[in-house]
Amino acid sequence: MKKNTFGDRFTQHQNQSGPICPTDAFRTGWLETYCEKIAELKVFEDKVPNHVLVNEYEAGQGIMPHVDGSLYYPTVTTISLRSHTLLDFYKPLQSSESGDGTSQIHSTSLEERYMQSLLLEPRSLVIVRDDMYKVYLHGIAECKSDIMTDKVANIDLCETANIGDNLKRTTRVSLTIRYVPKILKAKLMFGKKR
Ligand SMILES: O=C(O)CCC(=O)C(=O)O
Ligand SMILES: [Fe+2]
C-alpha cells in the first residue's frame, strides 16, 4: 500500500515514494474545493480540514486494525475513489484490575473482537467520529473481494450493493481528510509515527 501525506495547506509531503495523487489535483485546487465542501458539513466545527493522507491499495491489499491516535481532531473523513472497500471495526482489547492492583490484558482473537463493517463505495464520503474513531479499531482485510452480509452496517444506504453480493475489489485510492490543530502539526512534520 502506498501512502502520501499532505499537510500545511497540502504542500508538505511525507513518507513519499513518489506522488501517487496527481499534484495537479492540489495545484488546481480540486482537493481544496472538496475540503471546503466537507467543512460546510461542520464536521470539524468551524474548521477547514488542513491535512490529507492519500492511500492507494491494489486489490488484495489492506491495512491492519489500528487506531489513528490522538494527534487529530476526533473526527476523520474519508473519500473513496475507484474501488469500494470494506472498513472493518473491532473492539479494543479488554483489561481488568487484578487483586494486587495490576491490570491484566485479556487476549482475544481479532475474529472475536470484530463488530461490524462499513461498505465504502467509490466516490463516497464517510465520517467517523467519537468512540468509533477513538476507542474502536479500524482496518481493511487483505482480500480481493467482499461478500455483503448483515454485518455491513450501512448496506441499506448503499446504492451499489445488496446483501449476498460478492464485490470484486480493484485499485482503490482513499483521501483521509482531517483537521490537525496547528500545535500538533509540527509533530507530524518532524516525522512522528502514527
Ligand atoms: O484507506 C482508508 O480508508 C483507511 C486508511 C486508514 O485507516 C489510515 O491510513 O489510517
Ligand atoms: Fe486509520
Automatic annotation (TrEMBL):
Keywords: Dioxygenase, Iron, Metal-binding, Nucleus, Oxidoreductase. GO terms for cellular component: nucleus. PROSITE patterns: FE2OG_OXY (PS51471). Belongs to the alkB family. One of its GO terms (molecular function) is metal ion binding. This is Fe2OG dioxygenase domain-containing protein. It is found in: Nucleus. The lineage of its organism: Eukaryota, Metazoa, Spiralia, Lophotrochozoa, Mollusca. Residues 48-181 form the Fe2OG dioxygenase domain.
